[in-house]
Amino acid sequence: MRSFKFSIILLFLIGHAVSAQVELKWKDFADVKFEPVYNPTYDVNFLMPTFGSWISSFEGKEVQIKGFFLDISGNGEIYLVSAKPMASCFFCGAAGPETIIEVDFKDKPPFRTDQVIMATGVLELNPDNVDRCNYILKEASGQLIN
Fold first, then answer.
1. May I ask which residue range the UniProt record assigns to the signal sequence (predicted)?
2. Nearest 10 degrees: CA dihedral of 140, 77, 36, 123?
3. Domains of the chain with bracketed CATH
C-alpha cells in the first residue's frame, strides 16, 4: 500500500512538471539560422529559418516569454511580442526576425503597444509560411508586467 501511494504521488509530480510552462528568454529564440530561399509566389528571396535543436525541443509545448506587446496591424488583427519596443523592433530594421513572436490570443488582449507583458501559449515553429512569423504562440494569454 505504501509503494502504491508513493507511485501515485510520483506520477502526479511528474505530470505536473511535464505540463508546466517554461519561461523562455529571447536568447533561446536565437537558436536559428537563416538562408535565402527563392519564393516564386512573391518573386523574391526570403530568409528562411532552420531551427536549432534547443528551440525545437519546445515546439508544441506551453511556454512563456516576456516582451513588448505590439499591435502591428493597428486594428487588432496581428499581435506580436517583441524583444524590443516598436521604435526599434524587427520591422524598423533594428533587430532580426528571431526577436519577434506572433501571438494568437484566445481572447482579444487589452494591452497597448509597448506595454511589457508575459505571454503564455503553445509554441509553433514556422519554417516555411512567409506570411507568418517564424515563431508563433497559439492559444495564448497575456499578463501585464508594467
1. 1-22
2. 10
3. 21-144 (2.40.50.140)
Phi/psi-derived region of residue 113, left when phi > 0, alpha when psi is between -120 and 50, beta in every other case:
beta
Partner residues linked to 142 by β-bridges:
119
State the residue for C-alpha cell 509553433: 124
- Tens digit of pLDDT for each residue in 33-85? 999 999 999 999 999 999 999 999 999 999 999 999 999 888 888 999 999 99
Calpha distance 135→125 (Å, rounded): 5
For the entire predicted model, the pTM comes to 0.82
- Please say if the pLDDT value at position 29 is more than 50: yes
First to last CA, the chain: 50
